[in-house]
Amino acid sequence: MLIGLKEILRLAEQDRCAVGMFNATGFDSLQAIIGAAEELNRPVILAHAEVHNKYNDISLVGPAMLAAAENAKVPVCVHLDHGVSRKMVYRALRLGFPGIMMDASAMSYEENVRITREVTEAAHAMGADVEAELGRLPIGEDGKFVSTEHTGVFYTRAEEAERFVAQTGVDALAISFGTSHGFYKAQPKLDFEVVRSCAAATRVPLVMHGGSGIDKSGFQDAIAAGIRKINYYSYMSKAGYEAAAALISEKKTYYLHDVAYAAMQAMKEDVKRAIRIFSLQE
Description:
By secondary structure, this protein is an alpha/beta fold. The protein has helices at 5-15, 27-40, 58-71, 86-95, 109-125, 158-168, 192-202, 216-225, 234-250, 256-278, and strands at residues 19-23, 44-49, 76-83, 99-102, 129-134, 172-175, 206-208, 227-232. Helix 8 (216-225) links the parallel strand 7 and strand 8.
């Protein structure tokens, strides 16, 4: 069933765990995510990222995501991930997305507040919930380096987070505490005190971006510190890619649908593994 962002995060808070958010870049990953959640009987967030819009336009994939959520046997929130343009945010809201992320974190603090507050007011008027971001990850959503400097300069400060939430009225906040988008070359060093201090200061659900590649203990320590939503995509996609590559190399089929199906099954197993960790089931 389709539910809102605040509602699904409330379920995570009740269980003192985190809900996984997985990007659906096509119908194969959409089926993988919903299938994994249903098999484990766990809530899930199904997301469309603006950076992926060139692969599947939101006007096509958005209604399919909403239909899949409505027909699912478990609670599903459909969410716009990293909406960097207000145009994309408003497209998602008009389609009926119950959750959107306005990511103005590349702007100055003042601009981030101004843009996020404007979007939050509009989204709330339409019955949708809003996630924003304060602090920056050293590698952006598009895979490009934001900076080669020490990542500590990007960490979210609790006092600023408290002020930001009060000024914008957002329902969830993505914070920076040592993670990064994309693939890790080495295990990241996470600062859980940043999470604890931001959780105490803001009193809203906190979000971990750049969740792929973190080990089990890193995820669960972050959850214990206050993370309630974990964004996960890169390694799910990698699992699908590797399954597709293996089938192609075997030359047992020349049908694309066989390759897509193999990728979907591999992604589903990877999503199931992630959900079990996020929900503290392993």
